Prior knowledge:
Blueprint: H1 2-32, H2 34-45, E1 46-51, E2 58-59, E3 65-77, H3 79-85, H4 88-99, H5 103-110, E4 118-125, H6 126-134, E5 140-149, H7 157-160, H8 172-176, H9 178-182, E6 186-192, E7 198-205, E8 213-215, H10 219-236, E9 240-247, E10 252-259, H11 278-281, H12 291-300, E11 309-312, E12 316-318, E13 321-323, E14 332-335, H13 336-342, H14 345-366, H15 409-420, E15 424-425, E16 431-434, E17 437-438, E18 445-446, H16 450-461, E19 481-491, E20 494-508, E21 515-522, H17 530-549
Parallel strand pairs: 2-8
Antiparallel strand pairs: 1-6, 2-3, 3-4, 3-5, 6-7, 8-16, 9-10, 9-21, 11-14, 12-13, 15-18, 16-17, 19-20, 20-21
Amino acid sequence: MGAVDRRIGILFLAFVALLSIALMRATYLGAVRAGSLQQAAATQQVTKLVIPAPRGTITDRHGVELAVSESADDVVADPYLINKLKSPQGVAQQLAPLLGKPFTTVLAEVTKPHTGYVRLAHLLPSDQAAAISRLQIDGINLIQGTKRFYPRSWAASQVLGFVGSDNQGLSALEYKYDAILRGHNGLRKIVSDAIGQPISVNDVQPTVPGKTLRLTIDAGLQDYVEQVLAGVGAQYSPQGATAIVADPRTGAILALANWPRVDANNPLSAPQSAWEDQALGFSYEPGSTFKAITVAGALQDGLISPNTQFDIPPVLQFVDRQIHDAESHGYETLSVANILKVSSNIGADEIGMRLGATRFDSWVHRFGFGSPTGIDLPGEQQGIVLHSWQYSGSSMATLPFGQGEEVTPMQMVEAYSAIANGGVLRAPRVVASIGGKPVPVPRGQQILSPGVASQLRDMLRGVLADGGTASGAAIPGWDMAGKTGTASIVVNGSYSKTAFVASFIGMVPTTNPRLVVAVVVNRPNGSISGGSVAAPAFQKIVGWAVPYLGISPR
C-alpha cells in the first residue's frame, strides 16, 4: 500500500503543479497580455476596407461628358484555397476568357506557390467583373474600384489629360485639378465571426466624390475643329499642328485641337511627343502675324495712321542685313493698311524704325509676349522675347515682322483677342465652373484704346480682300479680318529655306468680333505659306462655327 500511496501522492503533486502553472499562465495572459491579445483578436475579426471615391466628371460647356469614372474591380485569387477546395485547371478554364488571358497564364497564377494573394486583373470593367462574380468560385474575390473613361476618346485629349493606374491625374486638366477631381476615399469596417462570415458592416468614413469640372469647350465645335486639323495633317504631313477657337469678350476657349491626335483611353498608343498641348508648349517665330503688334504700338503712340504712306524700296539695307519682301517689286509707296494687306516686311521695319527699339520692346511685353498667358492649364511655355537692352545692332531688322522672337499659339490668341475686344488684354481660360460654382472671368487690362483697336481691325480686313495674302480664305458676304504668317525655322544656326511654320489668325465679325480663330502648322510639306496652308483651315472652322453658334457673320 505504501508504494501505491506514494504514486498517488506524486500524481497529486504533479496535478497541483500543472494546475498552478495553468493558473499563473491565465493570470499572465489576463492581466499582462490582455491588451495585445485583444488587439490581435480584433485584427483577425475586423477588416477595414478603403472605398475609392468616384473621380469628378469633366464636361463641356453644355454638360456633355468628356471624362467620367466607371465602376471597375481588381480580381484577386487565393491559390491556397483554390488548390485545397477546387480544381485549379477548372478555375483557370472558367476565368481565362473573362480575363482576356491565355489559359496557361491564368493557371500559373492560380497555382502560384507560397502565397495566398495573386492579383489576376486590375480595374476590370464592371460587366466582366460581374460575370466573374456570378461564377461564385471560392478563392476568387473582387475588390471594388473605379476606372477613368473618356466617352469621346480623341476629343480634346491633350486638354483633358489622363490618369494613372492609381487614379491620380498625370497630365493637363486631370493633373492640374487632381485634388479637386479625386475627392476623398471612404473607409468601411467589417466585423466577421470565427469562421469569417460578416456580422457587421459600418461605413466609418463616408466617400466624398470628386467635384465636376465644366469647361468652356463646346464638344460639337471641338469635334469639327479636330476633323479640320486631321485634314491638314493628311494633306501636308506636318510635324504638328494646333487650332484654337476663342471668345475674345471673355477669354473662353471654345475649342482647342492638336495634331497628331491621341486616344485618351489609350494614351500609350501614341508617341510621347503627341501628348503635348502644342497651343501652350510649341514655341515658334510668329512671322508676319506679328506685324499687327508692331502696327498697334505705332498707332497707339500716334506715330502713324492707317493712311500714313511709306516709300518701300525693292531691298532695305539695315546695318549688315538686306531685307526683302516675299514678292519682288520695284520702288513703291504703301499705306499702313496696305503694308498689312500685302504683308510687307520692309514696310513693317519702317514702322518699327518710327517706334524705335525701346518703344517696340515695351509694346511687345505690353501685349503679354515673354510671359505665360495665365491660362488654367499646366505646361504653358512663355516663349523667348528679348528686352531692348539685349538687342543686337540688327535686331530691329527682323523683330518688327516676327523673326528673332518666339511665342506660343495661345499668346497670339490672347494678343489678337485684345485687338478684337476693344483693346482689353485678358487671360484665356478653359474652366467655366468647379463643383457648380462659376469661375470668375479674369480681369482684363486696357492696352489699346477702343478706337485704335477698331482701326487695326479695319486694316486686317484687307488681308482677306482681293490682293490680300489670304484672299482665298474669304467667305462672300462675311465680315472677317486676320493675318497670315509664314516663318522660316532656324536649323543648325541659320534660317532654313525648306522648313517653315505656316499660320493664320483672324476674327469674325470684324466690327464686333465674337470669335478669334488661330491655326498654326509646324513644318508642312508641299505648300508652306500661311495663306495656302493655315488660312483655308481657318475658313472651314469659321464657316462651320458661325452658324453653329448662331453668330451673325456681319
